[in-house]
Write a structure and sequence with these properties.
Elements: H1 7-47, H2 49-59, H3 70-88, H4 94-110
Helix pairs in contact: 3-4
Length: 112
């Protein structure tokens, strides 16, 4: 039997392997982009000075939270809205969201 008889099968196998490699790389890039986005969110949350002040007030359940201007408080809450969107679209797992930001979500929910 000549090798030419196996060429269609070999070609199909190579095409399948190339497709499989492409899918794996696509998934890997998606995970990398999600990780980069999460790092940007984390940086925004922990490096903004006004968010740091709110976090401290929340951690100590301080009444001084009402002294923060409304716009800053809205930005802080909007941050959590964005997290909820990422969670609901499955771009951020509930476990990671709760681990990284859950404490402050619970504390903010308790505030009036």
């Amino acid at each position: 039997m000549a090798i030419s008889a196996f060429m269609p099968a070999i070609s199909a196998l190579l095409a399948f392997l190339a497709l499989l490699k492409g899918l794996v790389e696509y998934a890997r890039q998606g995970a990398q982009k999600r990780a980069e986005h999460l790092i940007r969110l984390r940086r925004q949350f922990y490096e903004r000075e006004d968010f740091r002040i709110i976090r401290e007030f929340l951690a100590h359940e301080s009444e001084d939270l009402t002294k923060i201007d409304v716009q800053t408080r809205l930005e802080f809450l909007t941050f959590f809205d964005e997290l909820a969107i990422l969670r609901n679209t499955k771009l951020l797992s509930p476990h990671v969201a709760n681990y990284m930001f859950g404490f402050y979500v619970i504390r903010a929910a308790r505030c009036d």
